[in-house]
Amino acid sequence: MLDSRCPRLTWTTGSALNSQAYVAPRSSLEAVLAQIWAVLKIRRIGVHDDFFALGGHSLLATQVMSRIRSTFKVDLPVRCLFDTPTLEGLATALLCSRAQHVGPKCWPSCWKMLNAWIRMGSATA
């Protein structure tokens, strides 16, 4: 018999664990990264959700970065996920790596590039 005083089990969404409101992936790149993050077994992952706050750890980080490497043909170090643990940050790192092939040194300029790209995309949507 089910005890009515026990709370019902529900799926946890990434944003429920994060203090920011849920923001869905805004680009196909962020959507693919969210699919790769499925190793976290979280149903809905927003662009501001932190990989480690959602239950990620070093072994899952290695698995995620391996999948990113095989999907995008870009060799980002695992450290990248520790430095930028959100979909938004990781998408920026990927864009930067593909565009300039110089790694973390270019991230500040890539944040500007990504924000401009997002604004252009939302203006056409």
From TrEMBL:
Residue ranges occupied by any Carrier domain in the UniProt entry = 23-98
Sorted alphabetically, the keyword list is:
Phosphopantetheine, Phosphoprotein
> Superkingdom of this entry's organism?
Bacteria
Q: Which residue windows are coiled coil?
A: none
PANTHER family in the cross-refs = NONRIBOSOMAL PEPTIDE SYNTHETASE, PLIPASTATIN SYNTHASE SUBUNIT B
Q: What is this protein called?
A: Phosphopantetheine-binding protein
Organism in which the protein naturally occurs: Archangium lansingense
**Taxonomic classification, please?**
Bacteria, Pseudomonadati, Myxococcota, Myxococcia, Myxococcales
